[in-house]
Amino acid sequence: MTAPTSAAPVTPYATLLGFTRYVDRTGPTKATFVGGLRKQRASRHGFNPHGQFVKALKADVAFHTGGTHLAQVADLVKPRWRPLYEALVPGATTWLHSLGEPAGVDLAQTRDALAMLGDLPVKINPQFGVRYADGRAEAIRLHFDEAPPSEETTLATLHLMARHMDAVLPHAEPVLVDVRRGESHRMPADVKPEQVEQWLAGEAAAFRAIWSTAA
Fold it and tell me: I need a surface site. Which of 79, 116, 129, 136 has the fewest CB within 10 A?
């Protein structure tokens, strides 16, 4: 009788959302969170409830419709997701209007990138980009949570996007949009990138260590 073969090891990996949520946690909740990510990756299960919402927002930017698609999207999703979408639409519409005249803003294509933080791969995946009539461009990452993004979440998200902007959307500025409040967050002028890099390298090393012990 042959011995049963063991399952292939699940290599450490994080999306930008997963890693920035991890750095926002403290103490034992970090280990619990990483364990959950590891199980999800092993099962390859994952569902994005915001997919149709992002499509509607992108359509309003692309077709210069100023919120028409957002206004309709809550009626198009399954009833279980309707309350979520209804909570998101007002803030997203506020943000859309903050961009200025719809005709002066176009949708820009972003590409995903793979960041290496030490030995930890992190997928950098903004939802889309916007390009203004004056040539400026922004790579947009959306924050959907009920609570506003913390300073740690904001800093980690913007730093990692900026670090790989040549691949994501060349010459663009990274922006984290707090969807529920319709607010844009940009990198503070006084931030020292080398200090952020050192902090994130330490967080990534701890993430890998927790991942290994969760096996």
Answer: 79
